[in-house]
Amino acid sequence: MPNERGVRMTDGRTTGSARAFELLEPLVQAATVRVHAPPGGYETPRSHRTGPTWGSGFFIAPGWVLTCAHVVGEGGAAVRLTGREVGITFSAGSTTGTVTGRVECVLPERLEERRPGRHALWDLPDLALVRVLAPVSHACVWLTDRSRPRFDEVAYFGCTEDLGTPEITGRTTRLRGTAGNGAAIRLGDDDEIEPGMSGGPVVDLARGEVVGVLKARRLTGGGGLAVSVVQLRTLPMAARGPGRSGLYRRIMQAHDLYHYDQHLSDLDNRRTWTDVHGELPPEEGDPYAGRGRLTPGERTTLCGLLAELPPPGSSEVVRALVEEARGEEPDPLPPAPLSWRDGLGLLHDPPGGTAEAAAMLRYATDVSVAEYREPATPGADEELWDWVRATAERLWRPLRRELGERHERGLAERERRRRASAGRAVHGPARRSGGLPTGASVLLEVWAHGWEDVYDWRVSVLAGPAHAGRLTPVDSGVRATLAGLPEALRTPLAEGFRRCDTHETAALLEVAVAPALFGLAVDEWVVVGGVPLGVQRPVVLRHPAGANPGTAPNLGGAREHPADREGADASARWARVQAGPLQDERADCVRGRPRTPATEWLSGLPDNTVPVHCRAAEQEPTLGSLHAVRDAGYGVVVTRRPPADPGASCAPFHRGLREELADAGRAEVLPERLQDLRGRAYGADPDAYWAAGTGLVWEDPARPLPDEEPLQGDL
Question: pTM for the whole thing?
Answer without folding.
Answer: 0.80
